[in-house]
Design goal:
heterodimer, A: 420 residues, alpha/beta, 2 domains, 17 helices, 13 strands, 44% helix, 12% strand, B: mainly alpha, MetI-like fold, flat, transmembrane (chain B), transmembrane helix (chain B), MetI-like_sf (chain B), membrane (chain B)
Chain lengths: 420, 307
């Protein structure tokens, strides 16, 4: 009989042979000469460099000389691909960053419910599974946002930001009449961002259990998302979304909007980080994605910024918990992490420009219960596997000219074959 | 000959001597066989076993679900669409890569300096990373890219190379052909160069034209090269992934997703390692069957060369 661990390890390697692989440095945890080693697997990016991570944990190490934090870089493989390999190889880190808990991953994670800082952190309830808190994060990545070019709005005679979908549609018409490209979107993964920013604020506000109902097959896409898809198709037909948007890469779309070539850009709050670094840019503002008329409290799509979890296999869970508490509560550590990736959290401020301050105000004004997942979802609010790819593909189909009812029917078929 | 051998056959050699004779082969070949088993056969077998499970990549508590992953692979419309597009890429790409490669090889088979330079130029795309090629052509074929800019100066309306389904599929295939035909060309060149010049001299004496020499001398004699080219290209294109990722990221509307693209999405982005393994096994079988079929189909042509 083949042992599960052997099968899983070799199987992972075989399937992953098609993918890029990197090597994460791996050190055994535990105590060595009175020092407890805590390994932390983190995503290393142009913003979040190894130097940044080592600098981030240094104050913690100084305050806890008995704990040595070892930052693990998964390389090009990334945390999401590296963790399964490390788990099956029996070489998992003590702490993992940037991987939100799912029902698949939860059995491998420590339940942090005993810690107040985990229960009361940003989006803690939204990410809980069966009432258990498996992660603690540093702040919010807002999703349901429309960034706008203030000059374009002035030229189009728009004096106030839209507060309903109808007002948004009217504004798009005025922007087009004024000679602007109304909506900037792009191909790749980013296409569906605009459809979700249009639909979810109303859909989830009207049915806070929308994710659960869709997953259980108790609601249909056509009944819940149909109006948003029809509105979106109307935007495409009216030329508010250029048909050639699918040939534009995400970074190029970002630059096009920054340089003032388009009027409105649906994107997450991390765009503010790019905007803050840009030297020549249009004057940009942001407004919360509106719901349809009659919905008083639109849902706000948001993800947790930099979630931390502790692996059950860790031999240093107590030290790991002290490290995570520091990373998600220490004023300076949180502010540093928020700033470097353009994220936000009420009460944790860093030096930010006018756009950042607008976003900080949105965070301060949004009630905790209004936050909702987007895309595939998280915690207990998840949709069937593959939803993100499917909604993105169908949004691209809409831009390509496919009729709204065909797209809605395709999504209904997809849910019928995967939900329940 | 048979009469002299028969007494030897009749005598049984001592077992010790038999093993002594076999020992060098075992010692020298054994490590290679062990490496082959450990690196190829065992992982393939375990990947097959994994494909019978619902493993999500994290928990070790997976369960065996029989052939459900295989049934799902044939039910899932995304996987089916990806398989169809992969087949289109593989067959069309194989024909075009070999057609263009052979054509160019025939044109620049001479020994002139210009031909040497042209060989280098045509082969160059093959040694560039596929990801770089994808990003390069993505920038050139974008709505405001160089190609549409050039068309614009000629008064031609922009072409939706990457934004319309049919054009995007064609763009993926042509980009692959552009990057790959240099490899086919080099193999064909090697084959053409190996044809003895006396054959051409004899054909010339018989009054054969250049086309007739190519058709009746060159083509039959490079039949083995053809087989190698066909199999390698077909197998390579069945696994195409990186160019698609960089050029279209599977879009628009998922129309250019290939089967390997799906395997990686399902395995890692969607945490369905068992399902990903099942698709990998199917791809492995299809690749093996097609490779074998092409080799067998080409056996007749190769036999003529041997004869």
């Amino acid at each position: 009989m083949i042992k599960h661990r052997t099968l899983a390890s070799v199987g992972t390697l075989t399937v992953a042979a098609l993918a890029l692989t990197g090597c994460a440095g791996s050190d055994d945890g535990g105590t060595d000469g009175g020092t407890t080693e805590v390994s932390m697997l983190v995503n290393v990016t142009p913003n979040l460099t190894e130097e940044f991570w080592n600098g981030l944990v240094k104050p913690f190490e100084d305050a806890h000389p008995e704990i040595d934090v070892v930052v693990q870089n998964p390389g090009a493989e990334g945390v999401a691909a590296a963790l399964p390999r490390l788990l099956t190889a029996g070489d998992a880190p003590d702490v993992v960053q940037s991987l939100p808990p799912t029902t698949d991953l939860a059995p491998e994670l420590v339940d942090l419910s005993q810690y107040d800082w985990a229960r009361s952190g940003p989006l803690a309830d939204q990410y809980s599974i069966d009432g258990k808190y498996y992660m603690a994060g540093i702040g919010f990545q807002l999703q349901s946002l429309w960034f706008y070019n203030k000059t374009a709005f002035e030229e189009a005679g728009i004096t106030a930001v839209p507060t309903t979908v109808d007002e948004l549609t009217a504004a798009l018409g005025k922007l087009k009449d004024a000679g602007w490209t109304p909506i900037q979107t792009s191909g790749d993964w980013a296409t569906s961002h605009s459809l979700q920013a249009l639909g979810l604020p109303s859909i989830v506000a009207e049915d806070p259990e929308w994710f659960a109902h869709m997953s259980a097959g108790e609601a249909t896409f056509s009944d819940t998302y149909g109006d948003a898809v029809a509105t979106y198709a109307g935007w495409v037909a009216d030329g508010y979304i250029p048909k050639d948007a699918l040939g534009v890469k995400y970074p190029d779309a970002e630059q096009a909007f920054l340089s003032g070539k388009s009027a409105i850009y649906p994107m997450g709050s991390w765009f503010a980080g790019t905007e803050a670094k840009a030297e020549e840019k249009a004057e940009i503002g942001v407004f919360r994605a509106p719901a349809v008329a009659g919905v008083d409290d639109p849902a706000m799509g948001a993800n947790i910024a930099s979630p931390y979890s502790i692996l059950r296999s860790s031999e240093s869970q107590e030290a790991a918990a002290q490290l995570v508490e520091f990373l998600v509560t220490d004023q300076a550590a949180v502010a540093d992490q928020l700033e470097v990736d353009g994220n936000f959290r009420d009460g944790y401020e860093y030096e930010m420009d006018a756009l950042g301050q607008e976003l900080q105000q949105i965070v301060a004004d949004t009630p905790a219960e209004s936050y909702t997942p987007t895309g595939q979802g998280y915690g207990e609010r998840t949709l069937p596997t593959g939803y993100s790819d499917e909604i993105n593909a169908q949004t691209q189909a809409l831009i390509g000219g496919t009729a709204a009812d065909e797209v809605v029917a395709a999504m209904d078929d997809w849910f019928a074959s995967t939900a329940g | 000959m048979a009469a002299t051998l028969s007494p030897v056959r009749a005598r049984r050699r001592p077992a010790a001597r038999v093993w002594r004779d076999r020992l060098p082969g075992i010692v020298m070949g054994g490590p290679a066989v062990l490496v082959f088993l450990a690196m190829f056969i065992v992982p393939m077998f375990l990947a097959f076993v994994l494909s019978l499970t619902d493993w999500n990549g994290y928990s070790l508590n997976f369960t065996f679900i029989g052939l459900e992953n295989y049934a799902e692979a044939f039910r899932n419309p995304r996987t089916v669409d990806a398989a169809v597009f992969t087949a289109v890429v593989a067959f069309t790409g194989t024909i075009l890569c070999n057609g263009v490669g052979l054509f160019i090889a025939a044109l620049i088979a001479g020994n002139g300096r210009a031909n040497t330079l042209l060989r280098t130029i045509f082969f160059y795309p093959y040694i560039i990373s596929a990801l770089i090629i994808g990003f390069l052509w993505s920038a050139m074929l974008a709505p405001e890219g160089a190609v549409n800019g050039l068309l614009g100066t000629l008064g031609v309306a922009p072409v939706p190379f990457l934004t319309e389904v049919t054009f995007a599929k064609a763009s993926v295939i042509l980009t692959i052909v552009w990057s790959h035909f240099g490899f086919n060309m080099i193999l064909f060149l090697a084959g053409i160069k190996s044809v003895p010049p006396e054959y051409y001299e004899a054909a010339t004496v018989d009054g054969a034209s250049k086309w007739q020499q190519f058709r009746n001398v060159t083509l039959p004699l490079i039949a083995p090269v053809f087989t190698v080219n066909l199999v390698l290209t077909l197998v390579g294109l069945l696994k195409v992934y990186d160019i698609v990722l960089a050029l279209t990221d599977g879009g628009p509307a998922g129309s250019t997703q290939t089967i390997v693209y799906q395997v990686l999405r399902d395995s890692f982005a969607n945490s369905e390692l068992g399902f990903g393994a099942a698709q990998s096994v199917i791809l492995l079988l299809v690749t093996a069957v097609l490779g074998l079929a092409v080799t067998l189909a080409r056996r007749g042509a190769e036999k003529k060369v041997a004869d």
